[in-house]
TrEMBL record:
Top-level taxon of the source organism: Bacteria
Pfam families: GerE
Alphabetically ordered keywords of this record: DNA-binding
Family matches, as Gene3D superfamilies: 3.40.50.2300
Keyword DNA-binding in annotation: yes
Protein's name in the database: Response regulator transcription factor
PANTHER family hit by this protein: TRANSCRIPTIONAL REGULATORY PROTEIN DESR, TWO-COMPONENT RESPONSE REGULATOR
Stretches that traverse the bilayer: none
CDD domains per the UniProt record, alphabetical: LuxR_C_like
Record's signal peptide: none
Length: 175
């Protein structure tokens, strides 16, 4: 349908969170994957973001990633030296993607323009060989680059990312 109606936005309201179903829905062109239990104010905010072209996911995604089974010995594991793969600004942007910030928030937090954020996101997608922001964020968590609690894996003790005054967003990924 999106090929025929390029401006079409699709929001899926589901009974319960299912990671595989969510990934499949986004691969098929869904712009928002929302649980039916969502309150009216967050629902309206999510629909506004979808209308603006953002991708919206439930906070249950972060809970899912936090409980993801770590790789066990013997499984194939690919370790990448992130500093060789991404620039410092792209790493900062990737962290914001994991935290679920839309482009406007990333631009504000990194003190760069939204257009620059889009350039960084496209470069991240290309370099990580993923198709969307969701896959990039999942890659970062799976590789141990960014922990599901929002901290960099190599962060110094006491270093908190994001800042304590930041409130976690309702949305997870923007496109």
């Amino acid at each position: 349908m999106k090929e025929r109606f390029p401006g079409l936005r699709i929001a899926a309201l589901v009974d319960s969170f299912n990671f595989g179903q969510m990934v499949d829905a986004f691969n098929r062109g869904v712009d928002a994957y929302l649980l039916k239990e969502i309150a009216s104010d967050p629902l309206l905010g999510s629909l506004r973001l979808v209308h603006q072209g953002e991708k919206v996911m439930p906070t249950a995604l972060l809970e899912h990633l936090a409980h993801k089974r770590p790789l066990i010995e013997g499984e194939a594991e690919i370790k990448v030296e992130l500093g060789e793969l991404l620039s410092e600004r792209e790493i900062d942007t990737l962290h914001c993607l994991v935290m679920g910030y839309p482009n406007k928030v990333i631009a504000y937090r990194l003190d760069i323009s939204e257009a620059t954020v889009k350039v960084h996101v496209k470069a991240i997608l290309r370099k990580l060989m993923v198709q969307n922001r969701t896959q990039a964020a999942i890659w970062a968590v799976n590789q141990g680059v960014v922990l599901a609690n929002g901290r960099f894996a190599d962060a110094e003790p006491g270093e908190v990312v994001p800042s304590e005054d930041a409130t976690p967003p309702l949305v997870a990924m923007a496109h």
